[in-house]
Design brief:
The chain is α/β, with parallel strands linked by helices. It contains 14 helices and 19 strands. Bound molecules: guanine (GUN) and fe (iii) ion. Keywords: Hydrolase, Metal-binding, Zinc. It comes from Amniculicola lignicola CBS 123094.
């Protein structure tokens, strides 16, 4: 369905769950969320047993469509993926024992360079957007490739499918990038970035669904002059910025060598005016206290990518420290450094990595399930600058949501109704909080039976009755 198609006034009827704060998950049994024709939440109620009596109380909603959860389940805010690489999806699971710098040369650059083919880009990007939507991702910050037309195609696909997206043409002009996959000059790097920004703004002038994002790949990929020009482009266009920072120790050493006059990796971005409130920095594993203070002062945001950090043995990002210092953090799948397009998987990975950190640095570093779910929703919304619009259920927010079904008991030999291991409350004594915990640890895209962006259905499975 085209993203511009109109929607009907709808009442979403069933338990809803969302983060109230970093530590508090709010569970509202028998909830009702009233969403208008623009996809904006107009009212919320709880403990509603009968939607007809609600309609009789709310005259102007008497003709509204009712979307009810079948069986056991709940509404949850759409997930926000603050960092991923659409062109790397075909490489998912390929990293062997490489670490960042040889992984880029071995797997990543050859795959990305091949996406200059528009027919290949069409296949890869439409499949990837389908996959992220099916995992409940309603907003995503995408890296494309250096190719303008393929990047624009990714934005077209997101707009058509109705997924909120920040879409970035990758800039990489330094001669550390392979000759076969590199911007050939600073001028072409800037002109191509500008062309993509202009195109994305032309297809969605309101910026409600797709937005451009300036994307210097990372400091080693760009010359100082190119970074300066990209900083200027950010000032001129007001666009978001995304890049990688301090992911791997060899990369950090390389940055020191390439930018000997900079005080730190973070200072490289600072001196080129790339550290701003609209900047998303992925990884941030090895930052010093001074670097974190600078990021906080500039109000730049961090995308935590735990699956990728483990796969490429980059390190354990000190998320508790970042949060305690007041830095805004969200989660990123970082496909294909990360092996899954699922933010629910990143929630688990964030929790796991926090436990490894706790083993050496103390229990305070453990993230709770509620905290990880916050990062996946409200945290991510703040990272992409949409905290006023999405990330939770409140009057005035837009309805970006997923319907989670906890499934039914599988009959012997028939897996049709079966969703996830142990997710079913066989004996009827689980509390709601326990059901949510079990979804987090045992759930996957089979549980995500329907997904909405601004009240528009953007994905559903055969389990959904709309
Ligand atoms: N640093 C520079 N490019 C990349 C990339 O594609 N993935 C990851 N994980 N780190 C990077
Ligand atoms: Fe990345």
């Amino acid at each position: 369905m085209a993203a511009s198609a109109s929607i009907s006034k709808s009442i979403y009827f069933g338990t809803y769950v969302h983060s109230k704060s970093l530590t508090e998950l709010e569970i509202r049994p028998d909830g009702v969320i009233g969403v208008d024709e623009k996809g904006v939440i107009q009212f919320l109620e709880t403990n509603v047993k009968d939607v007809e009596s609600l309609k009789s109380r709310r005259e102007e909603w008497k003709d509204a469509k009712v979307v009810k959860i079948k069986g056991e389940g709940f509404f949850f805010p759409g997930f926000i993926d603050t960092h991923t690489h659409a062109p790397q999806h075909p490489n998912t699971g390929l990293f062997g024992k490489t670490t960042l710098l040889d992984w880029l040369q071995t797997y990543t650059f050859p795959m990305e360079s091949s996406l200059g083919s528009l027919s290949k880009a069409q296949r890869v990007y439409s499949n990837f957007v389908s996959r992220t939507l099916s995992h409940g991702t309603t907003a995503c910050a995408y890296y494309a490739t250096i190719h303008v037309l393929s990047t624009n195609l990714l934005a077209d696909i997101c707009l058509k499918r109705g997924q909120r997206a920040l879409v970035g043409r990758v800039c990489m002009n330094s001669n550390l990038s392979p000759e076969y996959y590199r911007d050939m000059s600073i001028e072409s790097s800037i002109a191509d970035s500008r062309a993509s920004i202009d195109y994305i703004r032309s297809i969605d002038p309101s910026g409600e669904i797709v937005l451009p994002i300036i994307t210097p790949r990372f400091a080693p990929s760009c010359t100082a002059h190119c970074l300066t020009a990209l900083g200027d482009l950010a000032t001129e266009t007001g666009a978001h910025i995304q890049t990688h920072i301090s992911e791997n120790t060899s990369e950090c050493e390389l940055v020191k060598k390439l930018f000997p006059d900079s005080k730190s990796y973070t200072d490289v971005y600072e001196t080129h005016h790339l550290l701003r409130p609209k900047t998303i920095l992925a990884h941030a594993v090895h930052l010093s206290a001074e670097e974190r203070a600078l990021i906080k002062a500039r109000e730049a945001k961090i995308s935590h990518c735990p699956a990728s950090n483990t796969a490429l043995t980059s390190g354990c990002c000190p998320v508790r420290t970042l949060l305690d210092e007041g830095i805004t953090v969200g989660l990123g799948t970082d496909v294909s450094g990360g092996f899954s397009p699922s933010i629910l998987e990143e929630v688990r990975q964030a929790i796991w990595v926090s436990r490894f950190r706790a083993m050496n640095h103390g229990d305070v570093h453990k993230l709770s399930t509620s905290e990880a779910l916050y990062l996946a929703t409200r945290g991510g919304a703040a990272v992409i600058g949409m905290e006023d619009k999405v990330g939770g259920f409140e009057i005035g927010k837009e309805f970006d949501a997923q319907m989670i079904s906890l499934g039914t008991v599988a009959e012997e030999g028939n897996m049709e109704g079966k969703f996830t291991e142990g997710s079913i409350d066989l004996f009827g004594f689980e509390k709601w909080a326990e059901k949510v915990e079990k979804w987090v640890y045992g759930g996957d895209d089979r549980n995500t039976v329907a997904v909405w962006v601004r009240g528009r259905l953007v994905h559903s499975t055969s389990k959904f009755e709309g």
